[in-house]
Specification:
heterodimer, A: mainly alpha, 7 helices, B: mainly alpha, Helix Hairpins, 3 helices
Chain lengths: 178, 103
C-alpha cells in the first residue's frame, strides 16, 4: 500500500474541524432564525467534509462538501417558503418535550462515546492508499462486487424523486387526472 | 488506540447526540429533517474513520458512505414532498398539528 502516515498537523486539523462541526451543529438548534439554522447546518456539514479531507478520504470529502452545499441551499429556500417567521424576529418557541430530548441526546452521545473509548479497536493503520489508488479501488468496488447495491441506490433516488413530486402535486390536479 | 480514531468517533458521538435532540425536540418538519441530517452526518463520520484507521485497503467502507449519502438525499426529497403537501393542505409544516399525513 502506498501512502503517507497521519502527521501531527493532520491530527490538529481533525480536532479543529471536529470541534467546528459540533459547534455549528449546536448553533442549528440554538438560534431562533431559521435562515441562520440552515446556514449553521451547512457550515457543520462542510466542516465534516473538511474533516474527511483531513482523514485522507479526498473523494468522499469533496463529495460531502458539494452535496451539502446544494442540499442546504435548497433547505434555506424551503425555510423562507414555509416558515411563518424565517428571520426569527418574533422569537417563537418551536420546541416541545425539551428535557426528554436533551436526556435522550446526552444518553445516546455518552453511550456511543463509551463504546468508542472502551472497545479494543486493535492497531490502527498508519498509511492509507494515495487518492488515485483510492478512486481506482472505489471504482472497481462500485462496478464489481457492489454493483447491484450501487444500482439499487440510483433506482431508489429516482423512485424517491418521482414519489416526492407525486406527493407534492396539488390534490385537485391528481383528482382531475383520475 | 489511535488518537485520530478517538477524536473522530467522539465527534461523531456528539453529532449523533445533537441530531437526536433536534429530531425529538423540534416541532417544525424542516427542523426535524435537520436533526436527522446531523444524525446521518455522525454515521458518515464513523464510517470514514473506521475505513481510515481500521481497513484503508478495502473499499466496501467507502461504498457504505455513498449509500448513507443516498439515504440523506432520499430523506430530503421525501421530506420536502411531504412538507409541500402538508403546507398546501394546512398552510403550515408544524408537526404538533399533524395527527395524520392525509394531506
Amino acid at each position: 500500500m502506498t501512502g503517507t502516515p497521519m502527521s501531527p498537523l493532520q491530527l490538529a486539523f481533525v480536532a479543529f474541524f471536529g470541534l467546528a462541526a459540533v459547534w455549528f451543529a449546536l448553533v442549528v438548534f440554538r438560534t431562533s432564525s431559521m435562515m441562520r439554522s440552515a446556514l449553521a447546518l451547512l457550515f457543520s456539514q462542510t466542516a465534516l467534509g473538511a474533516l474527511f479531507l483531513a482523514l485522507q478520504a479526498e473523494f468522499l470529502g469533496v463529495l460531502q462538501i458539494m452535496m451539502m452545499a446544494t442540499e442546504m441551499s435548497i433547505m434555506a429556500i424551503f425555510m423562507v417558503m414555509f416558515m411563518m417567521d424565517p428571520g426569527g424576529l418574533g422569537q417563537m418557541d418551536m420546541t416541545h418535550q425539551k428535557r426528554l430530548s436533551i436526556l435522550a441526546g446526552v444518553i445516546a452521545a455518552v453511550a456511543i462515546a463509551a463504546v468508542a473509548l472502551l472497545t479494543p479497536w486493535g492497531a490502527p493503520a498508519t498509511t492509507v492508499p494515495s487518492p488515485a489508488d483510492q478512486l481506482q479501488g472505489l471504482g472497481r468496488e462500485l462496478l464489481g462486487r457492489s454493483m447491484l447495491v450501487f444500482e439499487t441506490a440510483g433506482i431508489t433516488i429516482l423512485t424517491a424523486m418521482v414519489a416526492a413530486t407525486a406527493v407534492a402535486m396539488p390534490a385537485f390536479e391528481r383528482r382531475r387526472e383520475r | 488506540m489511535s488518537l485520530g480514531l478517538v477524536l473522530a468517533l467522539l465527534t461523531a458521538a456528539a453529532l449523533f447526540g445533537i441530531g437526536l435532540y433536534g429530531a425529538l425536540s423540534q416541532t417544525n418538519l424542516v427542523m426535524i429533517m435537520m436533526g436527522v441530517e446531523l444524525i446521518l452526518g455522525g454515521a458518515l463520520l464513523d464510517l470514514v474513520a473506521f475505513w481510515r484507521f481500521l481497513h484503508p485497503g478495502s473499499y466496501p467502507g467507502q461504498m457504505f458512505v455513498l449509500i448513507v449519502m443516498t439515504v440523506m438525499a432520499v430523506e430530503m426529497a421525501v421530506g420536502f414532498g411531504v412538507a409541500i403537501a402538508r403546507f398546501r393542505a394546512r398552510g403550515s409544516v408544524e408537526m404538533e398539528e399533524a395527527r395524520e399525513l392525509q394531506g
